[in-house]
Write a sequence for this structure.
């Protein structure tokens, strides 16, 4: 029988296992390809909204859609985090966004050729829930891991995610490849894969919600509304009070972050280099399809390879970081990202894309795991959801500009190569800012 701590950590890992189905199949692999080849007509699509008419293509649409989702979470994340800390309801918020995102993912099954608006709306809502849920998932890290363990626990979480997402994605690939043998159309196999992603996400997350312990906070909650009131009035009042206090607490945290020089510097660095990482994740498949004309099998096979190599990357760099220091290893990994972008600009065929996938898989897990653990080691434990709300704000704020920049450059130049090379600047600025961060272990304790 596992100890309570071991069950708690395992339950936390399993949410990464669960939601990575969405990250892999919907964000990175199958939906972008399906969107570019089936949903959006081959000759492009005309965007019409309140009198605005803009002829566009699948690549530009996907880039702007990703950026718009990030903008919404940017506006709401810190307030949600503050409310979760005050009300001690991290797990409840995690459940709401998890099951909401799963539902909208399942609804993507309904999207077929020409359903551009329907696909964008369902993906927008599912992606918003996915990103918002991660605020509360990440905020558990300082509570379940000691200072000595935080790098490895973060790395193992990503390893579980790569393994779970990879296995689910492998099942989807097999279904798509054998669609003729089981008597269904290829597009139906793709739609079933999207539906399966939502079911996988919701199903495995139940393990998390059963075993993961809600951390206790030393903060006080807003006082209950006095007097006799009905349940609806009470609910509205509680939401108002929590929202009001959440906004005030968010402003307090903004001032607090300004006082914590290392946190402010790290978040600035993270905002820039993560911009490049998130854009690569979101645009890789559609870049291979649009710019290189690669077959769907090559794209999906490469992305599957990224998942399984990512397991080793997350574990390897987390272990090395324990010996050489998180900041040093993170800077080293970011320099590897610079080389990857230069290679992506020059590549011409399927073999190059496979090689790129190996390299991305190796550094992706390392950069994500070390970034989260480095930040988690510096934040106040009792305000973890709020501070991870800011982490998510900077993560998603950065994810706004990368896809937007990619989409604008692609629209203007007609090529994605210059767009992918433009991401180099984000990494360079991030590395420079990171150099000024003092790598001091903070207040994270179990």
């Amino acid at each position: 029988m596992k100890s309570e701590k071991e069950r708690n950590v395992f339950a936390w890992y399993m949410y990464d296992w669960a939601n990575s189905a969405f990250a892999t199949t919907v964000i990175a692999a199958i939906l972008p390809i399906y969107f570019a080849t089936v949903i959006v007509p081959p000759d492009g699509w005309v965007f019409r909204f309140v009198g605005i008419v803009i002829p566009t293509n699948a690549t530009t649409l996907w880039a702007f859609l990703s950026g718009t989702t990030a903008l919404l979470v940017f506006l709401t994340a810190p307030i949600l985090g503050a409310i979760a800390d005050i009300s001690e309801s991290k797990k409840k918020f995690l459940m709401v966004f998890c099951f909401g995102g799963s539902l909208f993912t399942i609804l993507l099954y309904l999207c077929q050729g020409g359903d551009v608006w329907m696909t964008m709306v369902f993906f927008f809502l599912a992606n918003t829930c996915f990103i918002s849920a991660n605020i509360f998932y990440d905020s558990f890290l300082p509570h379940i891991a000691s200072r000595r363990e935080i790098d490895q626990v973060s790395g193992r979480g990503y390893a579980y995610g790569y393994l779970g997402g990879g296995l689910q994605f492998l099942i989807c690939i097999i279904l798509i490849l054998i669609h003729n043998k089981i008597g269904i159309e290829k597009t139906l196999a793709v739609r079933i894969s999207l539906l399966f992603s939502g079911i996988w996400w919701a199903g495995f997350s139940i393990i998390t919600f059963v075993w993961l312990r809600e951390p206790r906070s030393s903060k006080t909650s807003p006082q209950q509304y006095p007097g006799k009131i009905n349940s609806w009035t009470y609910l509205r009042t509680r939401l108002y009070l929590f929202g009001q206090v959440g906004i005030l607490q968010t402003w307090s945290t903004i001032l607090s972050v300004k006082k914590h020089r290392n946190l402010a510097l790290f978040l600035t660095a993270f905002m820039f280099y993560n911009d490049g990482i998130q854009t690569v994740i979101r645009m890789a498949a559609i870049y291979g399809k649009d710019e290189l004309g690669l077959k769907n099998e090559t794209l999906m096979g490469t992305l599957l390879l990224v998942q399984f190599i990512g397991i080793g990357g997350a574990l390897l760099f987390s272990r090395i970081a324990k010996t050489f220091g998180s900041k040093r290893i993170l800077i080293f990994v970011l320099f590897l990202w610079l080389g990857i972008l230069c290679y992506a600009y020059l590549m011409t065929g399927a073999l190059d894309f496979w090689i790129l996938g190996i390299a991305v898989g190796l550094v992706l897990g390392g950069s994500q795991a070390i970034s989260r653990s480095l930040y988690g080691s510096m934040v106040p434990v009792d305000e973890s959801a709020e501070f991870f709300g800011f982490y998510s704000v900077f993560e998603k704020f950065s994810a706004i500009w990368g896809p937007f920049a990619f989409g604008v450059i692609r629209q203007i130049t007609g090529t994605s190569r210059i767009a992918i090379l433009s991401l180099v600047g984000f990494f360079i600025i991030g590395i420079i800012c990171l150099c000024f961060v003092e790598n001091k272990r903070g207040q994270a304790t179990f």
Notes: The two ends are 20 Å apart (CA to CA). The beta strands are 45-49, 52-56.
